[in-house]
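agent> fetching stored inputs for the adenosine-5'-triphosphate docking request
agent> found them:
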Amino acid sequence: MNFVALRMLTGDRAKYLGLIFAIAFSTFLLQNQTSIFAGIMSRTGSQIADVTDADVWVMDPATEYFEETKALKDTDLLRVRGVPGVDYAVRLFKGQPVARTPEGNFSATVVLGLDDATLIGAPRKMVMGSWENLREPNSVVVDRAGYMLLFPGEPLELNRTLEMNDNLVRIAGISEASASFTSFPIIHARYSAAVNFLGRERSQMAFVLARGQPGVSAEELARRISDATGLRARTQNEFRWDCINYYLKHTGIPVNFGITITIAIVIGLVVSGQTFYLFTVENLKQFGALKAIGVTNARLMGMILLQALTAGFIGYAFGTGMAAVFFEIFSQKIATRGIVLMWQNVVGVGVLMFLVVIAASLLSIRRVLVLEPATVFRG
Amino acid sequence: MKTNTSANAVRCAGVQKHFGEGDARIHVLRGVDFEAKQGELTFLVGPSGCGKTTLISVITGLLDSTGGSVELFGANTRQLPPEEQIRFRRRNLGFVFQQYNLLPALTAAENAAVPLLAAGMKRREAVERAKALLVKLGLENRMDTLPSKLSGGQQQRVAMARALVHEPRLIVCDEPTAALDHATGESVMELLADSAVHPERAVIVVTHDNRVFHFADAVAHMDDGRITHSEQRN
Ligand SMILES: Nc1ncnc2c1ncn2[C@@H]1O[C@H](COP(=O)(O)OP(=O)(O)OP(=O)(O)O)[C@@H](O)[C@H]1O
Ligand SMILES: [Mg+2]
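agent> prediction call returned; pasting tokens
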């Protein structure tokens, strides 16, 4: 009877396509919204992940996330270096000066000042030039998206100048940074140069970047540093999550997305569930005839489940395909780079759609089980 | 004539059926005594609303009665567990409905094969057997056609094939010619009389259509929930 069930499902083209479309669209909407949300949230700590040289980030206990920092004292660096198990610890400046181009464009930027001697924390993915050029006087590295923001429509080119707080600097390299939450250009410079970009706000040692000696795990190192210094010491991964959690807790973003996602879930579920349920209800006469002929309830249940799972699977596959194409296109765009269809969302939405389809088929099955087969005699 | 020709396929005694409770209670069957014999075409006739459809629903086990007894081939099927009753129906009963009730997504041959499929037969074999029967019923050119592309008479012949394909012992038809014009109705009834009637099978036809009465072996007249009289025709 399986082929009968499938034929019933696909027999009415319009109804069948409507059902597939409803499930595909819900799948697409859910995967799309949840992935964009996750992508935006992961941007809040993306600059932390870009620093590959540090296991542990040390900061003032009042610093909760990357964007807003309270300055550390110079002695804090020495105290961190004194903690047993620390291989190296270097300073990291962070400020948000305005950069101007000779053409008159300007934008707020995120400036990261790196330890002059080691350049630890320098960008490792370069599009043009080398991070080692930072050793040259008055040189900075700008990220590609930031460059395109400052020099719109112009080709990537080294040795152009920027002005920050009356300091003229030369672009000695263009890096490929992860998209930041604010979309400000990310500028790397030497620490000694970066402190001059800000003018009145001095002494902005925002973080100390530390790495453990061999055999000392990041977690262990972070625990030792915070115990010994009273500073906040977080592993790279912990600090990323701190940033994500900060935005989740203190901004309207999760609420806004939460509303959109909830609406997507409710509409998706109601539309797909309802469409399938109505599909069965419209076929009740056929199920009645099968019942009269002597098809058992167990068989009828199997038929309905098969119909539901088939429609669910095909719709889900189409929806996931649509989402994959969507993100394939948008992850190429500079503003939406890094926002990808995450497998967790694909799986999660799959589980959700599966539950919807099962719920809808249970309702449908109930209708068929209570159906009086005698109704087949009525016109 | 074989000895079992006159054996009772269906035997109803004092069958009662009411719908609803209290003031809303409608007494539809008020003590029906009815018989249908193997090898015969038995007509059940009577005015609209007298309870004919209800009676055959009770006989075929699609409805439960509220009183009296129904025996099919000498056995009280109501005493069987529900799954057994369904199996009994699948094996021994064939249905022809006024509205045909074919599955619109299946071809004529596949529709006719449904009772075999329901009994677990392989699709290819079931469809082959259905096709052989459709040839006998004059539908050899329409076997792979969907019901929506068939005329009313052709659809009713497919429905007949579906009722016959598993060689049941009792076939029940509710107004099989009511949706057909006279000539088509006549030819469908003729086919039914020729193909369905078999020494070990009983056929019950509910009808209003006095133009086809001459096909009957026996006629039971029903009015207001009772059989008022029965006549033997041949
Ligand atoms: N499920 C039901 N609930 C309530 N009343 C019902 C139900 N089924 C049938 N009836 C009533 O029982 C009576 C007999 O109905 P039935 O369909 O058996 O008549 P019938 O002889 O087949 O009529 P027709 O020739 O018009 O088909 C009618 O009054 C009908 O309204
Ligand atoms: Mg009727």
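agent> quick read of the result: The beta strands of chain B are 8-19, 26-37, 41-45, 67-72, 93-96, 170-174, 202-206, 218-223, 226-232.
agent> awaiting further instructions
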